[in-house]
Amino acid sequence: MSGDDLLFDLRDGVAVVTLNRPEAMNALTLDMALALHSRFEDWARDDNVAAVVVRGAGERAFCAGGDIRALYDAHRTGGALTREFFQAEYRLNRLIFHFSKPVIALIDGVAMGGGVGLSVHARTRIASERTLFAMPETGIGLFPDVGGSYFLPRLPGAIGLYMALTGARLRAADCLYAGIADAFIASARHDEFVAAIRAGKPIDAATKCLSEPPEPAMLAANRNAIDRCFGHESVEEIESALYREAGEWAQKTLKVMAAKSPTSQKIAYRQLRDGARLDFDACMVMEYRLSQHIMAAHDFFEGVRALIIDKDNTPRWRPGTLAAVDDAMVNGYFEPLGAAELTFG
Question: Quick one: how far is CA 237 from the chain centroid?
């Protein structure tokens, strides 16, 4: 990790951490995850820290995700990163979820994958006009991780499953509508917000004082159709419902889903179904199992090749259809890892 990849600023009881890789859209590396975990543990014990603010450098991204190119390279060379990264990332997600002091995420720009894990579990999530929030993992042969098992099935109606299977991109208004964000504050006023809480203004009061109503939520316009189509008992039934649904939205949604990994879609469906009845820690243990089984399979590395490395945008999924992904195959991804299970110190 470069010494400047994370910037820390503790003043007046408020610790601000800035993800500082704007040229990489603030993508999270293993070293960054480990350093953040260590610093959060220090802040938990430090009586001089009353709250933590997490933000991203630059105007494009809060955090666009984990460094998946590094995972791809590690797989090719047989490195341990495919284990160590997910361990560190998921332990950091858990630490933020359970953190004893207020954590505020300024979601200014793109928040996807690993960036979701750094923001959605915070106590206060602030969106801006630049917010673009998504869980696009099924499009690269992964699954909606970083606590997606926990928060997605707890969103209203079928919104969480819709996000998981389509990678739908949410703007600020959609994030507020879905309960992913708590307030909208224009990006130009984020420094003012930090200054206000450093001056002693309560977080809720500072948020209320600076917040503004965003544009209308696109999710609201499609909510009935989302619930109608995505409230079914299998991915195949969801597709059938979309075929029956009239209108341009359903046709676009079918086209989007057709490009995703069939295996990842079926994993995500079961993952959210199981996660709805698990606590957060159990969700993270389940997600680590999924991550390690997927790292030993085909689709993730093919998805990264097609979308990130070669950029031909034509991944050759194996299997290539939903019908070819049977229950036994899906169940295998959820098998325990024995002595290699994720643990929390």
Answer: 26
